Amino acid sequence: MQLTLTPEALEIRLARWQKILGLMRDITIPRSHIGDVQLVQEPIREAMSSGLKAGLRLPWLYYACRTIGLDQAFVVRRNVPGISIAVRDQAPLARVVLSTPEAPELARRLAERS
After folding, report:
1. pLDDT digits over 70-90, tens only?
2. pLDDT of residue 113
3. What is the pTM (predicted TM-score) of this model?
């Protein structure tokens, strides 16, 4: 997964294997559609407790999946801090949870302009 933050959008580019096994595609969220941004210390726990999911699920290790209602997307792995991003005006997607070592810095940068 590659994260790119531009003045216009947050781009989440998934590796080919993440797209295929996770039944997902790249996600682009315009900065104007980013709502609440929160750090998540245990993103795996968030993914596991979010209900039914479609995609790649390796409990307690790795998730690249979406909920059945397609309202939440997860690309998280064990022992890596995460960030939860509320998404406005991109129905059905309402929240994205990502694991990234740069989670605190990304949260700070997103909160500056959201």
Report:
1. 999 999 999 999 999 999 998
2. 64
3. 0.92
| Sheet (strand 82-87) strand order | 34-40, 82-87, 95-99, 72-77, 62-67, 53-58
Instruction: Please confirm whether the linkage preceding 43 is cis (ω < 30° from 0).
Output: no
* Residues pairing with 58 in the sheet: 62
CA distance readout (Å), 13 to 16, 45, 48, 81: 9, 23, 22, 18
Torsional sign, CA 83, 76, 101, 3: negative
* pLDDT per residue as tens digits for the range 88-97: 998 899 999 9
Contacts of 49 (CB under 8 A, 6+ apart): none
Residue with tokens 């989670």: 103
